[in-house]
Amino acid sequence: AQSVTQLGSHVSVSEGALVLLRCNYSSSVPPYLFWYVQYPNQGLQLLLKYTSAATLVKGINGFEAEFKKSETSFHLTKPSAHMSDAAEYFCAVSLPGRGGYQKVTFGTGTKLQVIP
Amino acid sequence: DTEVTQTPKHLVMGMTNKKSLKCEQHMGHRAMYWYKQKAKKPPELMFVYSYEKLSINESVPSRFSPECPNSSLLNLHLHALQPEDSALYLCASSQEGKRSYEQYFGPGTRLTVT
Fold first, then answer.
1. Dist. CA A36–CA A27, nearest whole Å
2. What residues pair up with A21 in beta bridges, in sequence order?
3. Which residue, A18, A82, A95, A112, is most buried by CB atoms nearer than 10 A?
4. B104 touching A, CB under 8 A?
5. A45: buried, middle or exposed (CB in 10 Å: 19+, 13-18, 0-12)?
6. Over 90: is that where the pLDDT of A99 sits?
7. What confidence tier does B96 reach under pLDDT thresholds 50, 70, 90?
8. How confident is the model over B11-57, as pLDDT tens digits?
9. Is any Cβ of chain B less than 8 angstroms from the Cβ of A90?
10. Left if phi > 0, otherwise alpha if psi is -120 to 50, otherwise beta: which for B80?
11. Which phi and psi angles does A61 have, rounded to 5°?
12. Beta sheet of B18-25, edge-to-edge order
């Protein structure tokens, strides 16, 4: 079975500090992994995705994530936090399906707080 | 246009009411999804439509009835809901085929059942 685990339901960083949000996955097949961000009262927006092309994936808003098979991890980082980064972040894995759709399992989410 | 639109933004309904949520996308995606999201929780999959046919129903109560009239539209009909059904309802769409394709989400409908 495929699943993702996000360590830390809340993370607080100072403005300008490094952001590190942790995600570990479990998958019996090569995983396809995603990071989504959700701002208050909004839908989810894709930050970046891993599809086996490159282990270091760059996304929007200065975020990047590195796929480490040996550690079964896909942690999200940003060198310098901005106030606008305060949001809920979800790691997700796409499951194999029989039809022309993607069945996605989301992690429990990490709320990022940025302190001025 | 990479936008998924949802109407209404907010909905308050009584337990005996009938209402509908609407979702629309014009990206040519043939897979569309309904999710339910409770506060401080991840989205939970409810239904998946692929090529306008219902592919997944995650054991959702019959008081929720999905409909896909065409490849751009997705509706969720609501009837005799319970207060615990109050949540953010999210619609999403994706290209069909590969599981590497991401989902595009709408802004959601905030539903309150009184």
1. 19
2. A76
3. A112
4. yes
5. middle
6. no
7. confident
8. 999 998 999 999 999 999 999 999 999 999 999 999 999 999 998 88
9. yes
10. left
11. 60, 25
12. B4-7, B18-25, B73-79, B64-70
The pLDDT-based confidence of A53 (bands split at 50, 70, 90) is: confident
Minimal C-alpha gap between A33 and chain B (Å):
8
The residues that bridge with B20 in the sheet, in sequence order, are B77
Q: Smallest Cα–Cα separation from A37: which of A106, A101, A105, A96? A: A106
Q: A100 pLDDT exceeds 80? A: no
Secondary structure of chain B in the HEC alphabet? CCCEEEECCEEEECCCCEEEEEEEECCCCCEEEEEEECCCCCCEEEEEEECCEEEEECCCCCCEEEEEEECCEEEEEEECCCHHHCEEEEEEEECCCCCCCCCEECCCEEEEEC
Provide the residue type at B7 as one letter: T
A 10 A CB-CB count for A5 gives 14
Amino acid at site B82: Q
Contact B40 A49 (CB under 8 A): no
Question: How far from chain centre, in Å, is Cα A85?
Answer: 13
Each residue's pLDDT tens digit, A75-94: 999 999 999 999 999 999 98
